[in-house]
From TrEMBL:
This is ABC transmembrane type-1 domain-containing protein. The chain crosses the membrane at residues 27-47, 80-110, 130-152, 179-205, 241-263, 275-295, 301-321, 360-378, 414-436. GO terms for biological process: transmembrane transport. Keywords: Cell inner membrane, Cell membrane, Membrane, Transmembrane, Transmembrane helix, Transport. It comes from Heyndrickxia sporothermodurans. Belongs to the binding-protein-dependent transport system permease family. It is found in: Cell inner membrane; Cell membrane. It is a multi-pass membrane protein. GO terms for cellular component: plasma membrane. PANTHER family: INNER MEMBRANE ABC TRANSPORTER PERMEASE PROTEIN YDCV.
């Protein structure tokens, strides 16, 4: 909104530069929602598909080239079919996240009505029956899409016989194509970084100094000083980190073994279980939060006789439930490429199942596992819709603290909190990529 909205930096900058009477464009409506969704959700395709590309044995493509196939034919007949599980996994996640999206429609929809917002408005108006009906409709649409995509994916066998040798980079030799790729990459990086740079800019603008001007005129670190002088500043940051670690650890363990059972084992009700695993993304986050309130507002066997609502543990449980599909679908994408002969060979040599899983299967699927796990962590750190229903003062995460600052019109301090969140996520991603990326490559 601060960057591309009606009062945003870029539209008003263009208006002032060319002397226009009104801004040439503004982010809003259906187009605004689509742009925000594309910007925030492309990462699901990037991480899932890149993990699958990394697991394609280059000898398959080389064999096709040796048989006289063109680059396009090799991609269409060899590479693309092997990427289908990853593309399907990312498509499912993006479709379901879009269906249940709340923040973008809430801020940008205007008069455009979407189901996730209608559920919210029905709830705040006390029409719980209408809200429940709308939730069921939303779930039916998402589950129907899940069934269709599973049918499409299961039409063919995408496994390949390989030792897990990753793809290698090939140099672009055409200087014109290389120049086009460099320029496109620079433009893409700038576009992707602009929202983050805007948050950094806002965090350096003292509250009350940027009113009618197109661009701020005062910059200092006052917002950071005010936050750091507050003894409670680190509480939301520590909470977010601890909650995300607990939830992501559960997602990692549960997701890997659930994915293995769904892909490599046959049992009664397998398709039904697969659908159940994806349900958390089919439902709006607010619906999941309300269901957890109803489920754990009194002692039951699943909470070991305790009431979880109003305690610290309700939030990591909510994050865990919400993000199960991320790890499962990302792991599925690489497991479905893995030929059963590798596991069978290990078992024939006398290895136990767990040893085979730990020494043979897990190293090969590690890129997909880590992609899903990191996505789950990032989503947990920034989770808002479920947090706003379930948090308490003692376990409030950073997303809630940002909302509190915005409610008090402390835009600069809210942006400073946002920078802390960005730095936290960036550090975790950097460390994970350095450690787990190298470990995964060495284990292969």
């Amino acid at each position: 909104m601060f960057l591309y909205g009606e009062t945003g930096l870029i539209p008003n900058g263009i208006k002032d530069l060319f002397g226009l009477e009104k801004v040439p464009f503004k982010l809003g409506g259906v187009s605004g929602i689509l742009i925000v969704h594309a910007y925030t959700m492309y990462v699901y395709f990037y991480m899932t598909v890149s993990s699958a590309i990394n697991k394609i044995d280059p000898s398959l493509e080389e064999a096709a080239y040796n048989l006289g196939a063109s680059k396009f034919k090799v991609f269409w007949k060899v590479t693309f079919p092997l990427l289908t599980p990853a593309i399907v996994a990312a498509s499912l996640l993006v479709f379901m996240i879009s269906m249940a999206s709340f923040s973008a429609p809430f801020l940008l929809a205007g008069g455009y009505r979407v189901l996730s917002l209608q559920i919210y408005f029905s709830k705040i108006n006390g029409d719980m029956e209408i809200a429940a009906t709308q939730s069921v409709i939303l779930s039916i649409v998402s589950i129907s899409f899940l069934i269709f995509m599973r049918w499409y994916q299961n039409r063919k066998d995408y496994r390949m016989a390989t030792k897990g040798i990753g793809a290698h980079r090939s140099e672009v030799k055409n200087p014109f194509v290389k120049w086009i790729l460099v320029v496109s990459g620079v433009i893409a990086v700038i576009i992707l970084l602009l929202p983050h740079l805007t948050i950094l800019l806002l965090s350096l603008v003292p509250d009350g100094t940027w009113t009618w001007q197109t661009y701020p005129t005062v910059f200092n670190i006052e917002n950071y000083r005010l936050l750091l002088d507050d003894p409670n500043i680190w509480k939301p940051i520590k909470n977010s980190l601890l909650l995300a670690i607990l939830a992501t650890a559960g997602n990692l363990v549960f997701g890997v073994f659930a994915s293995y059972l769904l892909v490599k084992r046959k049992f009664v009700g397998k398709s039904f279980v697969d659908i159940l695993v994806m349900i958390p993304w089919a439902l709006p986050a607010t619906v999941i939060g309300m269901n957890l309130i109803f489920a754990f507002n009194e002692p039951n066997i699943f909470s070991f006789g305790n009431i979880l609502v109003g305690t610290f543990w309700i939030l990591p449980l909510a994050y865990f439930v919400r993000h199960i599909p991320l790890v499962v679908r990302s792991t599925n994408a690489v497991l479905e490429q893995l030929d059963d002969s590798l596991e069978e060979a290990s078992r024939n040599l006398g290895a136990k199942w767990f040893y085979t899983f730990r020494k043979v299967i897990l190293p090969i699927i590690m890129p997909g596992v880590m992609s899903g796990t990191l996505l789950a962590f990032v989503e947990s750190v920034g989770e808002f819709p479920t947090s706003v229903l379930l948090y308490t003062l003692s376990n409030r995460p950073i997303s809630i603290e940002i909302m509190n600052q915005l409610r008090m019109f402390n835009m600069g301090q809210a942006a400073a909190y946002g920078m802390f969140q960005i730095i936290l996520i960036a550090l975790v991603l950097f460390i994970s990529n350095k450690f787990f990326g190298v470990k995964a490559e060495q284990s292969l």
